[in-house]
Amino acid sequence: MALFRSDPTTDDMAKTRALPVSTASNPAEQHNIIGASTTVEGTLRSSGNVNISGTVNGNVEVEGRTMVMPGGVVDGEVATTSAEIAGTVRGQVKVKERLVLKSSAIVDGDIRTGKLVVEDGATFNGQCQMGATVGAASGDRKPERGGGASVVGAVGKGAA
Question: Which of 159, 98, 108, 149 is nearest to 128 (CA)?
Fold first, then answer.
C-alpha cells in the first residue's frame, strides 16, 4: 500500500489530494471574540476583527475592525482601522477610517479618526480630530487651525 511506503513514487504523490486552504488565514475573515464574562489584562493585538463584550484592561491594537459591544469595556487606548463602539471606552481612540459611536456608547477620552458617526444618545467626553490626514496619521500632533473640536457631555437626548 502506498501510504506505508518510505519512498513514494511520483504517481503516488499525484494521487494525493491537496487540502483546502483555510479562509481563517485571511485577516479580514478572522474574528476574535472577548466574551461577556472574560477579562483581558494587558495589550490585545490582532490583525483580524475583534468583538469585545467583556473587559479589556489595557490597550487594543487591531488592524481590522473593532467592535465594543453593549456592556463591553476597554480601559486603555484603542488603535484600529475601523470601529463601532456601543459599550464603554476609557482612553484615547485612534481610528484610521471610520468610527461609529452607537446610542449606548460612552467614550471618556480623545478621539482621532478619519470619519465619525455619532448616534443620538451617545456620550463622549474629550477632544475630537477628524479628517483623512488625521485618521491616517499614527503619531500625536496638535490640531491644525479649525481641525479640532472639543466635546463634553451627551450627544442627542437630554443634551442641552
Answer: 149
Cα(40)–Cα(54) distance, rounded to whole angstroms? 8
More confident of the two residues 2 and 80: 80
- Cell output for 71: 456592556
Q: What is the residue type of 60?
A: V
Hey, where are the domains in the chain? 27-75, 99-109+120-155
H-helix or E-strand spanning residue 98: strand 93-101
Of residues 136 and 147, more confidently modeled:
136
Is the pLDDT at 47 greater than 70, yes or no? Answer: yes
In the three-class reduction of DSSP (H, G, I as helix; E, B as strand; rest coil), residue 36 is classed as coil
Cell of 158: 437630554
pLDDT at 143 over 60: no
| Phi-psi map region of 15: left, alpha, beta (phi>0 left; psi -120 to 50 alpha) | alpha
Tell me which of 25 and 93 has the higher pLDDT: 93
Q: What is the phi-psi region of residue 134: left when phi exceeds 0, alpha when psi lies from -120 to 50, beta otherwise?
A: alpha
